[in-house]
Design goal:
elongated; Cytidine Deaminase, domain 2; alpha+beta; 2 domains
């Protein structure tokens, strides 16, 4: 007489009435560790573009706060600064004003900011700067747009307009930076630069040049011309805006 399997002996791989389908699937791992694992899997499966801004910050803060739920911290950063990019470029003082953000969290954010700047810098290095204007502006905006005081930088270029060095020359106050043309020219000669792009930021966010900006640019241009060094432009970086002296007819 043929053997009849009982209901509990259904074919392998199919749930029986004694084993509901919901119990046959692996349960989602609960708690913060499960949440972090799911975020990592989402990143690896769908790429960085799949992450919301707060999720990106949340994952960065994993590094600094391994035993803490970092989602509330990330959402407070977004509420304060509006985006992940602005949070990464915020000053230490601004970051400390956000609940739960201390030295460890700031270090993790600074690490991500440094990596982003390195990537942007690589995109303009070893290429003619004048042919990569949009990338140059993106790099400078990321580097100094949210600096709380004025910073004056010089891009030193070779005869093919490739970047030799990007160097801060001076920091000042919220509306003034002391710049010495002889120091700019001395450094250009040391590097063998044949062209310059002058850059500074306006912490107010308004890139309109001041009379002092225009005067200083003229002094550097005159000193450089004596030695056959070209000043291609002077860029003022505001918050989300920039101004080119050459395009405005000021150079």
């Amino acid at each position: 007489m043929p053997h009849r399997r009982g209901m509990a002996e259904a074919s392998p791989g199919f749930p029986t009435l004694l084993e509901p389908a919901s119990l046959s699937r692996p349960a989602l791992e609960p708690g913060p560790e499960g949440h972090r694992k799911r975020l990592r899997e989402k990143l690896l499966r769908a790429g960085p573009g799949s992450l919301a801004d707060y999720e990106l910050l949340e994952m960065l803060l994993f590094l600094a706060l391994p035993r803490i739920d970092t989602k509330p911290h990330a959402k407070r950063l977004i509420a304060r600064f509006g985006s992940a990019g602005r949070a990464l470029s915020a000053s230490d003082h601004e970051l400390r004003s956000v609940e739960g953000i201390g030295d460890a969290a700031i270090a993790a954010l600074r690490l991500a900011q440094a990596a982003a700047l390195k990537l942007l810098a690589e995109e303009i290095r070893d290429q003619p700067i004048l042919n990569n204007w949009e990338r140059l502006i993106a790099y400078l905006t990321a580097a100094i747009a949210r600096e709380p005081v004025e910073q004056f930088r010089v891009l030193f270029l070779d005869s093919r307009n490739r970047l030799l060095a990007d160097e801060p020359q001076a920091k000042g106050t919220v509306n003034h930076t002391p710049v010495y043309p002889r120091e700019v020219i001395r450094r250009a000669l040391e590097l063998g630069a044949t062209a310059l792009i002058l850059v500074h930021n306006h912490p107010s966010g308004d890139p309109t040049p001041s009379p002092a900006d225009i005067e200083m640019t003229a002094e550097i241009r005159s000193a450089a011309a004596i030695l056959g060094i070209t000043v291609h432009d002077h860029l003022i970086i505001g918050n989300g805006r920039h101004l080119s002296f050459r395009r405005e007819g000021l150079l």
